[in-house]
Amino acid sequence: MQIGYKLFAEGYPPQEMVRQAERAEAAGFDFVEISDHYHPWLEDHGHSGFAWSILGAIAARTRRIGLATGVTCPFIRYHPALVAQAAATTALLSDGRFMLGVGAGEQLNEHVTGKPWPPVTERHEMLRESLQIIRLLWQGGYHSYEGKHLRLVDARVFDLPETPPLITVAGSGKSAVHLAAELGDGVFATEPDPNLVRAYRKAGGRGPRYAEVPLAWAPDEDSALKSAHRMFRFAAPGWKVQAELPNVTNFEAATAHVREEDMASSFGYGPDPERHIAAVQQFADAGFDHLALVNAGPDPDGFFDFYAKELSRRLSEVTPAG
């Protein structure tokens, strides 16, 4: 079992993301994963630094810990040729510690270029073409590509690592999971859904299964739930809503009805390590083996101390029930 830490770039400035990555390495985490957004989800998050610059700084300031995007949409806001170049450079700067997580994106971040927001079936087609382009460029040499949605003209990534980064593909349905098995090296999810893991394996997927585990540490339960509500109520409507809303104000309106107590059903929260371990166990039981802990609590340093003292050893030994 590999345990990672989610760098919530929407909630903290870039310098703090680098500092938290250093703390995560010192606390014993195996990897850090950073969101790749243009906008935060909610107005009071207040931040959304450029993920690739932050990753470069983290690579220079750490020595052991793995790095990952969680996740990058490699079309519309980016072209996959740029993602191929950025991922290759980050892999070199981190001495091979980087993993590229990709997904079909959210309108919140991609609409800023002024291009139309495609339906999900078309986004999955674009994701497929993006992966084909990235893989092509990582072979070395000049390449062109003519797809249904995307083109590449006489392009070459000059600085390539000896071993290309792993690619994990985010998904919550059959189409994305099959794409992860076919063109990815692993799968990425945000819910403890054993059906997703079974579908991935049935489609031929044999790679790592990444997931994010929502936690909120604080010295008392009320403070933990209050912070979880402030930071993560945007996720309450579910992924189909998250992917489609275009602006921060839409997320404010869509989550106006979410209460602090509503967060208790989906979070490990408060000071009791058993509640946090139980939250992690759900994902292990579902078949995930690379778990990024998302701390929605009010005190990151308190959480790192809590992890090092109460969770690190026990979570490394977590296995699926039965």
From TrEMBL:
Coiled coil: none annotated. SUPFAM superfamilies: Bacterial luciferase-like (SSF51679). InterPro entries: F420-G6PD/mer (IPR050564), F420_G6P_DH-rel (IPR019945), Luciferase-like_dom (IPR011251), Luciferase-like_sf (IPR036661). GO terms for molecular function: oxidoreductase activity. Signal peptide: none annotated. Residues 12-290 form the Luciferase-like domain. The keyword Transmembrane does not apply. Pfam families: Bac_luciferase. Keywords: Oxidoreductase. It comes from the Bacteria. Its EC number is 1.-.-.-. NCBIfam families: F420_G6P_family. This is TIGR03557 family F420-dependent LLM class oxidoreductase.
